[in-house]
Amino acid sequence: MEPKIQNLPILQVKDLNLTFNIARGKARVLAGVDFNLYPNEILALVGETGSGKSVTAKSLLGLIPSRSKQVSGQVLLDGNDLLSMPDKVLQSIRGKRISMIFQNPHSSINPLFTLGEQVFRLIRLYLQDEIRELTKKAGIPPTEAVKRIAKEKFNEVGLRDSHRLFKSYVGQISGGMAQRVMIAQALLSSPNILIADEATSALDVTVQAHILKLMTNLCRQKGTAILFITHDLGIAAQICDRIAVMYAGRIVEIAKTKTIFSRPLHPYTKGLLNAVPKPGREGRLSFIPGMIPDLVNAPRGCRFYPRCDIARPLCREKQPERITVDDDHEVSCVF
User: So what's the pLDDT on residue 22?
Assistant: First the structure.
């Protein structure tokens, strides 16, 4: 049974463009990115490494360094444009209304403070009501209440030895454990939107399944909208309601998950699906020839043109518009 997704989006990304000024010229790494994210929905953003997935996620929260960049478009949270907000206002939204789990946990957790010091600070920042309630109910001081809440949050993501972890630094734990600490911190404030950037890539299969179930429950029970960035189509098929396929800074196809797998329309989407290993399939594994183009000298027309097996001269000259083929199925291809 598919989850009921509300009609009004909580997040709207409209014509998002990002250009870096580098020594060789201007690299347009995001070129007109458009998508909506709805409450109670898990939307996957998939594509090869270098397609712009992580840059898109960081751009939504203004986390791209301001030097030598140009940004245009809109990122609307309940109708308010995040791109035009002052830094102080945006900082109040990060972590509280929108949380992000980064791809590399060891570089995202402060190495100068213990894990306990960092998670305790976040609990005091976001969970004052829970601290007061537990203090009154259990008759314990606030510091002990903070530790109990932290232990509970760590247990939720499979971190059982919380007493030791609270005293540890990030350099003293494995990548998988560090990723789970990041996830626990991101979920502390019960955010409206969770951005998960390859959140399970560092985890073993059993822990990965636990985290995916945790995210799914968060979405279904609390209405949290999740933007799930991954290169693993198998995981996307398992938990996501819709899939947006990204190539060279553009979303080339977006549809419900079942539709993407049963009736892909863009040649790039077909190429990604054909490259997925399938049980019982014999012969060499399929692949997409070539590489993502140099974005300083990106093709004038369709950016997938140099690698496309059905490309025509028109594709070299004309950037295809994104058209609606069926209900909730959009694709950018002249064919």
Answer: 87
User: Measured in Å, how far apart are the chain's first and last C-alpha atoms?
Assistant: 33
What would the pLDDT profile of 77-95 be if each residue is shown by its tens digit? 988 999 999 888 988 898 8
Distances (CA, A) of 238 to 62, 205, 255, 310: 30, 14, 15, 30
- Tens digit of each residue's pLDDT (9 = 90 or more) over 189-200: 889 999 999 887
Is residue 9 within 8 A of residue 38, CB to CB? The reply is: yes
Distance CA 173, CA 212 (A): 21
| Packed helices 175-187 and 205-222: angle between N→C axes, nearest 10 degrees | 10
**Residue 275, phi then psi, degrees to nearest 5:** -85, -5
Residue 159 in contact with residue 150, Cβ under 8 Å? no
pLDDT tens string 128-143: 999 999 999 999 999 9
- Tokens read off for 159: 């971190």
DSSP single-letter state for residue 10: S
Residue with tokens 């900082």: 91
How far is 59 from 11, CA to CA, in rounded Å? 13
C-alpha dihedral (144, 148, 151, 157), degrees to nearest 10: -150
